[in-house]
Amino acid sequence: MRKITATTTAALLAGAGTAALATPAMADEHEATVSVLHAVPGLTVDVYVNGEETVPDFAPGTLTDPLMLPEGTYDVEVYADGDDPESAEPAISAEGLEVPGGANLTLAAHLAEDGTPMLSAFVNDTSTLDAGQSRLTVRHAAAAPAVDVRAGGSPVIEGLTNPNEEVLSLDAGTVSADVVLAGTEDVVIGPADLDLAEGTNTIVYAWGSAEEGTLDLAVQTIDGLHGDPGGVPSGQGGIATSTGVLTVLLMAGAAGAVLAGSRLVRREVA
Length: 270
What we know:
- The chain is built from 1 helix and 19 strands.
- The chain is mainly β.
- Strands 1, 2, 5, 6, 9 and 10 form a 6-stranded mixed β-sheet that branches. It has a 5-stranded mixed β-sheet with strand order 18-17-11-14-19, with no helix packed on it.
- A hairpin with a 2-residue loop joins strand 3 and strand 4.
- The longest helix is centred in the C-terminal third of the chain and has 14 residues, at 242-255.
- The protein is globular, with a radius of gyration of 18 Å.
- The termini are far apart.
């Protein structure tokens, strides 16, 4: 488990009574690749999955390495660090979260636009890219109004709201990006240089609270997305099929969690 970037394997749920967990190298269509992002500022938490403590002392701004989960249904509860689940109420919870085999997901605990803690299950695009291409995914997970994302000072994403995302396909390279309040020149995050390597999906989360001055970025990188038919996304479990995405969407909604990216937009950037 480490801050910002996750590309290697970790036993996130080790000792959690989930013996069926495996490393990404053992991925198959009956497993899902799941990363967990803690994007609620000022609160260290313990994460429980199916009643077992799985991520203790989870600090804000931390993204776990990907892990493999057998397809199935999961209950997720997030408690303030050290709280006893027998007597305390969870800060955030989601019951019956259906995780389909073959999906690649990031489960994010973050703030809604009004500052209320919430869970979102983002589906990560691991489809192959053409030679020389890179994918940039931007997710709004902050207690903040709509924002624009600029590259080199020019807007490339406009009016992005929490908890949605936009996905861009563009030439590989380094991009200087910042985040401004939608329709303004008021920079709230950045600028920051993003290294968009060929064959990768760079996923950027804007998280924190504008009112409390805690806005920040977390970056997740999924590599190995080249068009080589024999290639496998490095450290990942495969491609989230449309069927799998739909399943997660329906079940997350039924469980009270949020399947983010409901206003998902894909664009090709020259």
